Amino acid sequence: MSQQSLFAQRRRLLRYLVGGGAGAIALGLLRPVAASEDAELENLCSIFPNNSRCADYLQGEQALDLAGNPIAVDALLPTLTPGEPLPVTGLSDDPELTYLVIEAGPAIAPYGIQPVCTHLGCTVPWDAEQNRFICPCHNSQYDAAGRVLQGPAQRSLPLVTVAVKQNQIRLIDRAPAVDPR
């Protein structure tokens, strides 16, 4: 094979590589951007709900009272008792309930508790008389923030992120970036 034909083959290969790379870049620029921006904003606001880009964005699902009605924060806050978790619905996954953590003020904490026992996965109801979550399966007990008080469970109850915006309580099916307990 002559040296000229080798150069011609190399040039042809380089043209294919450059053309393919330019085509890939062009296809990447033509894809719909809006859907990916919404997904990125949902992800950002789920992790950092107080980020300035999330000021008007309502991520997650709206919390509902046990009758299935949307909850207005301004009407709810005066009725809350700090330290007593408030059951709400709104997330489609099991369990059906999520407990809002009520802090002094009263104020709604930026996290909610999923009442699923970390021992065997039983649904753990709030016992107002004993002021704790008590598992009906094996008597594991958790405080109002979901921390283990008595085993056999070894881990705290799982958390979800809660955002309060535009007079709504929003439940985000993701653990907070930092466990506040």
Key terms:
22% strand, six-stranded antiparallel β-sheet, 181 residues, Rieske Iron-sulfur Protein, alpha+beta, four-stranded antiparallel β-sheet
Short description:
The protein is about 25% helix and about 20% strand.
Helix/strand structural class: alpha+beta
Overall strand count = 10
CATH architecture assignment name of the largest domain: 3-layer Sandwich
Order of helices and strands: HHEHEEEEEEEEE
Unreliable segments of 5+ consecutive residues: none
Tell me about the largest β-sheet: 6 strands, antiparallel
Number of helices: 3
Work out the radius of gyration.
Answer: 26 Å
CATH topology of the largest domain: Rieske Iron-sulfur Protein
Strand order of the largest sheet: 1-10-9-4-3-2
Give the number of domains: 2
CATH superfamily of the largest domain: Rieske [2Fe-2S] iron-sulphur domain
Intertermini distance: 74 Å
Our estimate of the beta-strand percent is 15-25%
Please state the average pLDDT score. 84
Helix content: 25-40%
Describe this structure in words.
The protein is an alpha+beta fold and 181 residues long. It has two domains: 3-31; 60-172, Rieske [2Fe-2S] iron-sulphur domain (Rieske Iron-sulfur Protein). The chain is 25% helix and 22% strand. It is built from three helices and ten strands, in the order ααβαβββββββββ. The strands form two sheets. A six-stranded antiparallel β-sheet has the order 1-10-9-4-3-2, with no helix packed on it. A four-stranded antiparallel β-sheet has the order 5-6-7-8, with no helix packed on it. β5 (126-127) and β6 form a beta hairpin. The protein is elongated.
